[in-house]
Description:
11 helices; five-stranded mixed beta sheet; three-stranded parallel beta sheet
Amino acid sequence: MSKRLYIAALAAALVALPSIGAFAQETKSKLDEVLARGHLVLGTGSTNAPWHFKSADDKLQGFDIDMGHIIAKALFNDPDKIEFVNQSSDARIPNITTDKVDITCQFMTVTGERAQQIAFTIPYYREGVGLMLKADGKYADYAALKAGGSGVTISVLQNVYAESMVHAALPEAKVDQYESVDLIYQALESGRADAAATDQSSLAWYMTQNPGRYKDGGYGWNPQTYACGVKRGDQDWLNFVNTALHEAMTGVEFDYYAKSFKTWFGKDLTPPQIGFPVEYK
């Protein structure tokens, strides 16, 4: 290489240095940003028990809220280093893509359409439709309801899919639709319905609030996955949140996750098997 060409190449390399630095700055992970800030900013709701709702002393609580505390503890060894942004369901994705929040945990169902807009974490809950019966009612469980055929009445929240949803599990049952979840519970309590059908998490929460009065039908269908969401394109941040959630469900923070699950859904979780990691069986 001639001296003139060498000098030209060196000059071009020096000119490129600022853009290389700018690129490195632009690709800095959200993980670094959150650590530098000193607290996590999490988007969630405030009106849907047992997921995210206000306590009597106006504090946010619920299963989604506890997932936020798990992530904050993984970041700062302090579950309370977290700021909650109260948002509507419609704002869940826009607030992620515009960086108003670091992450959203708000009983968000994983779908292909949403996964084109944001990156989903690993699941932290599997939702489904369930059946709740009166503890002293005519029918013992799902099998008895199914055997009851057209003589069984199910109360359900009014929507265009209500009949087909119920008939997927109980093909012959009569379906009574109501305008609110409270009304489907009232129909069961008054005897107008033999069972109420809605999200299993809602039924579990209602039964924990009314111990001994109701029982689970022992059958679930229409599965859907709940996961938190982060901005696309930041693998370091996604990996970190996945690690925090994974270890809550299978490792060092299992006791906290299990206590939360028991509090909001009334069910005891079996501790993870020691030895070979169960997720690779």
